Amino acid sequence: xxxxxxxxxxxxxxxxxxxxxxxxxxxxxxxxxxxxxxxxxxxxxxxxxxxxxxxxxxxxxxxxxxxxxxxxxxxxxxxxxxxxxxxxxxxxxxxxxxxxxxxxxxxxxxxxxxxxxxxxxxxxxxxxxxxxxxxxxxxxxxxxxxxxxxxxxxxxxxxxxxxxxxxxxxxxxxxxxxxxxxxxxxxxxxxxxxxxxxxxxxxxxxxxxxxxxxxxxxxxxxxxxxxxxxxxxxxxxxxxxxxxxxxxxxxxxxxxxxxxxxxxxxxxxxxxxxxxxxxxxxxxxxxxxxxxxxxxxxxxxxxxxxxxxxxxxxxxxxxxxxxxxxxxxxxxxxxxx
Length: 337
Hints:
By secondary structure, the protein is of the alpha/beta class. The chain is 40% helix and 19% strand. The chain has helices at residues 13-21, 48-64, 79-88, 102-108, 143-152, 167-179, 191-199, 233-236, 242-246, 263-268, 270-285, 287-295, 307-327; strands at 37-41, 68-72, 95-100, 119-135, 158-161, 184-187, 205-209, 220-225, 254-262, 302-305. Strand 1 (37-41), helix 2 (48-64) and strand 2 form a beta-alpha-beta unit. Helix 2 crosses helix 11. The protein starts with 12 loop residues before the first helix and ends in a 10-residue tail after the last helix.
């Protein structure tokens, strides 16, 4: 039994009794899955979650012995698809890919019918470092020039983000705070639309991951990377780190992607839960999958974590994000108490 407590509340004794009393799965669980497995991506097609999942999808399917029936359930800053999985995934499908900290922000800043306690992590498997991208041919050759113009023209330079609940948005807020620059931050419902907005000329810059940004790399490039060291020079035009270029001391910024399933899956179908965790682990270890990533210069984005390790990371993030929102609720659209 995996009973989780967080800063958001402690599982009651009655609830613990319900968990203890729940079943351990049906007789068919050992043979599951015998049919295609429902899977949810809580964003629009073409986003970072979609791209990362599509790369590993064939290897997960190989391990499960069944295809994944993929559904895009975008909307509500990722909450539509997340709610669907929480309410319908008790038999271990659909399960989904999601991003940290997005899933945490989604219920801390919006009225939804789930919290993290409604899910169990299957595994964390990739990391997506944040970067500030501009179109090729943009008038700014450096991030210093971009920040200077944003200081001189407050609120005029448009910067797109996939939503207001992710690491890229937080990094942008911190950049504003530390430099005195003021951007016009435009939220899109997914990384794909946010990045495409830059190529289409709807915005002057976008906050996107080093790896997910490769979808626009023929037309755009990063001005700075939000890490202590840029380990991905070939993918970023050797962009400097934001801290080195601007003389700042910003925290590193990155999204972590992983697989989640409804909490009832582990409680009521532990064999199915183990089937999913094992399939993901073996898929990530697959030599062909890793060779494909290496060929694309993306092997460094792998950061596999077991269910327990990913859970511990998420619980730490919940504490950090709760404190952040309590200190600055207006930045996240939350009314101050």
